[in-house]
Design goal:
It comes from Falsiroseomonas stagni DSM 19981. By secondary structure, this protein is an alpha/beta fold. It is built from 16 helices and 13 strands. The strands form four sheets. Strands 5-2-1-6-7-8 form a six-stranded parallel beta sheet, sandwiched between helices. The protein has a three-stranded antiparallel beta sheet with strand order 9-10-11, with helices on one face. It has a two-stranded antiparallel sheet with strand order 3-4.
Length: about 375
């Protein structure tokens, strides 16, 4: 697999860091999770299946678990020995905490100059917000994305997808892989300062036209991706469910409105989002209410229109395409896992469903590090 031979020490908790290192484990990296004595919190959060939380199962499969009390000199020394033998170090403490506890970037890269040290935090290692505590929702609020997530009442609502967590995780993965690639040429690692805040701001190139081009906040309901366009919108159906039109290119507008006998609406619905789309929106709202969601899905079959039924999560994971893409995997014990989204032709990843008991690998990992160091 692509990351065979890469060793990762992960001190992060919850979602951004653990998700990133799960992707690495799925593709061959040896991931050693350093848990606090009380354990990774997500071991005990949310629904359980097969004796484990589903959240923990999908962020810690195939990893090793060690427990060290880093306030004790001998156990901090054991951590330092492990650091000397790994390629990647991941932490997600508030800025300054790792330094105070004896495993900050300067100290760790001094021990291992080839180390790629990745810090994931809410607001980064510097700036006026660096010490502010925050999880995903608060970061999205300060990054401005929450203001764009409006319900039908026009008020901000929960985004449900953890945008700040996910973007930081994926960009951190990209940064780690870039640093490992560069290390092949220079022999030196690097230090990564990954802020959830920065990641969230950076993922808005399609939504910052008003901000960067007109020096104002966007009028959310008039922006195409937030409901301003008739063909990039959500519509209720006869049975109280919903369908989505998800592509506003002229050919899709023309294909649907002509099939529905409303050529007169094509021009308005093909132009820029905003008031000109209102007649088409009104027609589509009325039209979609005449059939059930599943009837509309059948009607759209074979038509060249960006259409989708709005599925709940259970439906989405149990559709034939999810099965074909192996995005829902059942292990030998009958437990379900989210599949691997990265698919290589020649060296595909492997989902290892094994879950570590808390501290299960402490002695073995410490002994292995000392063996590698010739002690």
């Amino acid at each position: 697999m692509k990351l065979d031979g890469i060793r990762v020490l992960d001190l992060s908790l919850f979602l951004p860091g653990p998700y990133m290192t799960t992707v690495m484990a799925d593709h061959g990296a040896e991931v050693i999770k350093l848990e606090p004595p009380s354990g990774e919190p997500v071991r005990n959060i949310g629904e359980r299946a097969g004796g484990q939380s589903v959240w923990f199962r999908n962020t810690h499969r195939g990893k090793k678990s060690i427990v060290l009390d880093l306030k004790k000199p001998d156990q901090l020394a054991a951590l330092h020995d492990i650091v000397r033998t790994v390629d990647v170090f991941v932490e997600a403490f508030r800025p300054g905490v790792a330094d105070r506890l004896g495993f900050g970037p300067s100290a760790m890269t001094a021990l291992n100059p080839r180390l790629v040290y990745c810090s994931i935090s809410a607001f980064g290692q510097d700036g006026p917000l660096r010490d502010k505590p925050a999880h995903d929702l608060a970061v999205e609020a300060l990054a401005g994305t929450l203001s764009t997530n409006l319900g039908q009442d026009g008020l901000p609502t929960h985004p449900n997808v953890p945008v700040a967590d996910a973007t930081a995780s994926l960009l951190a993965l990209s940064a780690v892989l870039m640093a490992l690639l560069r290390r092949e040429k220079t022999g030196s690692g690097d230090v990564i300062d990954m802020a959830m805040y920065d990641a969230t701001l950076s993922w808005l190139p399609n939504a910052t036209g008003a901000v960067l081009g007109a020096d104002r906040a966007p009028d959310v309901k008039q922006v195409r991706q937030w409901g301003g366009g008739a063909f990039y919108n959500i519509y209720a159906t006869k049975d109280g469910r919903h369908v989505v039109l998800g592509g506003s290119e002229h050919k899709f507008v023309e294909n649907l409105l002509r099939a529905l006998g409303r050529d007169d609406l094509v021009a308005g619905a093909s132009g820029p989002p905003g008031p000109a789309h209102e007649p088409a929106k009104a027609f589509l709202r009325e039209t979609f209410l005449t059939r059930t969601r599943d009837e509309w899905e059948a009607w759209f079959e074979g038509r060249d229109v960006c259409f989708a039924p709005l599925l709940d999560l259970h439906e989405a994971f149990h559709r034939p395409h999810a099965a074909a893409r192996q995005m829902l995997v059942r292990d030998e014990d009958g437990n379900l896992h989210i599949g691997l989204p990265i698919k290589f032709r020649d060296e595909p990843g492997t989902l290892d469903p094994t879950l570590p008991a808390l501290g299960e690998h402490t002695e073995a990992v410490v002994a292995d590090a000392r063996r590698r160091l010739g002690r």
